[in-house]
Design goal:
Number of strands: 5
CATH architecture: 3-Layer(aba) Sandwich
Oligomer: single chain
Strand content: 5-15%
CATH superfamily: 5'-nuclease
Number of domains: 1
Radius of gyration: 14 Å
Helix content: 55-70%
CATH class: Alpha Beta
Order of helices and strands: EHHEHHEHHEE
Distance between the termini: 15 Å
Shape: globular
CATH topology: Rossmann fold
């Protein structure tokens, strides 16, 4: 199984003080043991680094990025202009939802890769038809 990883999951895994840390760590460990492959985007990595820098520390943001690249466990998909265009279509369509543009790029990548599940704590990942949020 391939699973999309969102910002909130990365934050919860990285920040031991995060309210979702234990759930994230348990879920990630179990998914890895089952052979799950993980995918995210450069936009999500950027958003995560920004959050960690602002709310935790610069050092932790740097470690997050270095460890992510070293681990080889998570494929980082680059958001291309065509993915951005598809994301903008989603962003324009859902006037009744407060999706961020990064959320929309994630949805667009998930659709293009035919991914149905996201490792996320963000409620938006249960608001778009065809996507389920885990854990």
């Amino acid at each position: 199984m391939k699973l999309f990883v969102d910002t909130g999951a990365f934050i919860a895994l990285t920040d031991a003080d995060d309210e979702n840390h234990k759930a994230a760590a348990d879920f990630y460990r179990n998914a890895k043991e089952k052979g799950t492959r993980f995918v995210t985007t450069n936009f999500v990595v950027c958003e995560t680094m920004h959050y960690l820098r602002a709310r935790v520390s610069h050092h932790i943001a740097v470690l997050f990025r270095e460890n992510l690249k070293k681990s080889g466990l998570i494929e980082i998909v680059t958001v291309t202009p065509s993915i951005e265009d598809a994301a903008f279509t989603i962003f324009k369509r859902y006037t009744d939802r407060d999706f961020s543009f990064t959320d929309c790029t994630s949805f667009s990548i998930m659709r293009s890769l035919k991914l149905k599940n996201a490792f996320a704590f963000d409620k938006h990942f249960e608001q778009l038809e065809g996507i389920s949020r885990l854990p």
